[in-house]
Write a structure and sequence with these properties.
Layout: E1 4-8, H1 16-26, E2 33-37, H2 43-52, H3 59-74, H4 79-85, H5 89-98, H6 103-110, H7 112-127, E3 133-134, H8 137-140, H9 155-165, E4 172-175, E5 178-181, E6 184-187, H10 192-204, E7 208-213, E8 234-236, H11 237-245, H12 256-262, E9 266-270, E10 282-285, E11 297-301, E12 305-310, H13 320-330, E13 335-341, E14 344-349, H14 354-363, E15 371-375, E16 378-384, H15 394-404, E17 409-414, E18 420-426, H16 430-442
Parallel strand pairs: 1-2, 1-7, 2-4, 3-4, 7-9, 8-10
Antiparallel strand pairs: 5-6, 9-10, 11-16, 12-14, 12-15, 13-14, 16-18, 17-18
Helix pairs in contact: 3-7, 9-10, 10-12, 11-12, 15-16
Length: 450
Amino acid sequence: MSGFVVKFGGSNLKNAEDLFKILEVLRMYNENLIIVISAAYNVTNQLIDAVAKIDRLDVDDFLSSLYQRYRSFLGRDDDQLKERVFQIRNVLLGAKLLGEVPEQIQDRIVSHGERCSSLMLTKFLQDHGFECEEALPEQFGLVTDGRFGNASVDLETSRKNAVSFFKKGRNYVVPGFYGIHEGKVTILGRGGSDYTATCLAYCLDAKRVDLYKDVSGFMTCDPKHVSNVKPVRLLSYDEAAELSYFGAKILHHATVEPLRKKGIPLYIFNINGFKTIDEPDTIITANGSMTEDVVKSISFTDDIAVVQFKGSNVGRVPGLLGQIASTFGAENVNIKSVITAQTSINLLISRQDLERSRKIVSRLNIPEVEAIDFKTDISLIATVGNGILQRHGIAARIFTAVSKEKINVLMISAGASEVTVYFIVSTADRDKALRAIHEEFFGGEKDEEC
């Protein structure tokens, strides 16, 4: 089954008028479509909050309020939609009685917004003459590795399931954000609907994936932190993946991986500035392009901490890094990156995993490790572009720009990726560093493209 996979995010579902925007967009395609939809704006946050406050949650009041939200989109009552919203009533009541929410139950609750959105959108489109039907991941078999909270899709198993389920010549509405493992719901992490869309594109050999958002694709930096940013028209898979991994919130970090395997292009549109389906804000393909100054964009993340293992010879002890890494992996702590020297091994982790990491290292007994430090209040800045390691002088320009602002660079890594140079600074210096690098590479008129 070929065709297009088209995804609309939660920011495209703020009110009933947004549904008419979606309908207008869909009518421009002359292909069969897989339409992936996120939860309505802020609904996932409401569900997360409900889980956090489960002991004092008024379940019926909460679900009634949620139904009214979806009813306002549809403009009428609908018994099937109401039944869908209340499907998690017994789950919520059971968790409230238990006094806690196990992770497998949490994933089912938090993903409920997507299941409600998909049914609501299906009914709206049908009401307005657009032929489509709903398809849930549990029906067509989007299979994951079973990791709650941040699962990965088993592409080959899911492909076999999807090919036998989806029929040619039909349009389907699919809830994003979650898959199934042995009958249990597992979410794909925040922003996971992007990943759902690209996994389905892989499974069904789609011609293209189109993502509709409320921002104009990738920019040279986050406009909330740097002024005078410019749009980035073309990116390679590698560039987009690195920008997403290191903090750019445009895409879920795993979005491009299924596309890379089959060379499927990804188009990103701002639905509020939308013109035609052939004029995206950013195009992501296998090759992308190389600009004169190489650097395409600068991203950052504050969700970073460093666990530093110190010892006079730790960098030369065979198997020591593997022992440390396997211990963290056994506790489901993801190591984002590793920077080593003879006297230290530095693990970059999510700040959210900091307390768990403290408990892990308190149980380690490694004679060669003389001290363990934790570095917090830091930010990681990634400068991304094809050829960044090959073009002479690019790294020097980056760090000269930072040095001129008297910013102390705590750690540097280059070579882990062919398209990225990243470094760590104090969070207090983060915006100053971003502005310095942006001015060095992108100073000029705002309407230029990269």
